[in-house]
Amino acid sequence: MKPAFQDLIPHNHCFGCGPQNSEGLKLKSYWRDDGSSECVYLPQPHQCAGPTGFVNGGIIATLIDCHCICTAMAHAYALAGREIGQGQPIWYVTGELNIQYLAPTPIDEAIKLVAKVENVSGKKMTLSCELMNVTEAPSTPYARATIMAIQVPSNWLKHADIPAMCEKS
Ligand SMILES: CCCCCCCCCC(=O)SCCNC(=O)CCNC(=O)[C@H](O)C(C)(C)COP(=O)(O)OP(=O)(O)OC[C@H]1O[C@@H](n2cnc3c(N)ncnc32)[C@H](O)[C@@H]1OP(=O)(O)O
């Protein structure tokens, strides 16, 4: 199996997708044969909403956000003809995130996110994403989202000079 996007993107302390964040969700994203990308995640009991059986909406937003932004970066490396993480770093951040929460997301089973790049225009990349049961059973997704990823220069990361308190040695 190929490495996850996140294992190839350098210097990432993101709470959702950064391997360097010891307290983070550490999600992992991979290409699928049809050109979309997927991420399987097992929610943790403390990530619940008010009812203990459903996943908190902010956690869902983080999963969608991070899976899509990492997909945008992976796609941009592919467009540049480079392996992820090779050469001059390519960084994207979230400009817009629109989510429809369509059904409660169960907390006691693995879930799957599937993202697609819909459009690339200059620094902007539009992606769609669905959150569903891990079996991809033909039912209504739990959530559906569109996201605008914006390419940023490396100086966007200037605040990375703050000591990385989230990184345990
Ligand atoms: C960096 C490491 C990443 C590692 C993985 C992280 C995964 C998780 C992702 C995140 O959570 S990132 C954190 C949440 N996002 C932010 O904090 C972003 C905060 N916003 C910004 O820093 C700036 O507003 C932003 C870089 C998004 C845009 O700055 P600018 O407006 O100066 O950019 P620019 O002028 O270059 O605009 C480029 C294009 O994007 C458009 N644009 C800018 N902001 C937009 C927006 N919010 N929505 C839609 N379009 C937007 C802008 O109109 C323009 O379109 P055109 O090329 O067609 O003229």
From TrEMBL:
<dbReference type="GO" id="GO:0016790">
    <property type="term" value="F:thiolester hydrolase activity"/>
</dbReference>
<keyword id="KW-0053">Apoptosis</keyword>
<dbReference type="InterPro" id="IPR052365">
    <property type="entry name" value="THEM4/THEM5_acyl-CoA_thioest"/>
</dbReference>
<feature type="domain" description="Thioesterase">
    <location>
        <begin position="53"/>
        <end position="134"/>
    </location>
</feature>
<dbReference type="InterPro" id="IPR006683">
    <property type="entry name" value="Thioestr_dom"/>
</dbReference>
<protein>
    <recommendedName>
        <fullName>Acyl-coenzyme A thioesterase THEM4</fullName>
        <ecNumber>3.1.2.2</ecNumber>
    </recommendedName>
</protein>
<dbReference type="Pfam" id="PF03061">
    <property type="entry name" value="4HBT"/>
</dbReference>
<dbReference type="GO" id="GO:0005737">
    <property type="term" value="C:cytoplasm"/>
</dbReference>
<dbReference type="GO" id="GO:0006631">
    <property type="term" value="P:fatty acid metabolic process"/>
</dbReference>
<dbReference type="InterPro" id="IPR029069">
    <property type="entry name" value="HotDog_dom_sf"/>
</dbReference>
<keyword id="KW-0378">Hydrolase</keyword>
<keyword id="KW-0472">Membrane</keyword>
<keyword id="KW-0966">Cell projection</keyword>
<keyword id="KW-0809">Transit peptide</keyword>
<keyword id="KW-0443">Lipid metabolism</keyword>
<dbReference type="GO" id="GO:0016020">
    <property type="term" value="C:membrane"/>
</dbReference>
<keyword id="KW-0276">Fatty acid metabolism</keyword>
<comment type="similarity">
    <text>Belongs to the THEM4/THEM5 thioesterase family.</text>
</comment>
<keyword id="KW-0963">Cytoplasm</keyword>
<keyword id="KW-1003">Cell membrane</keyword>
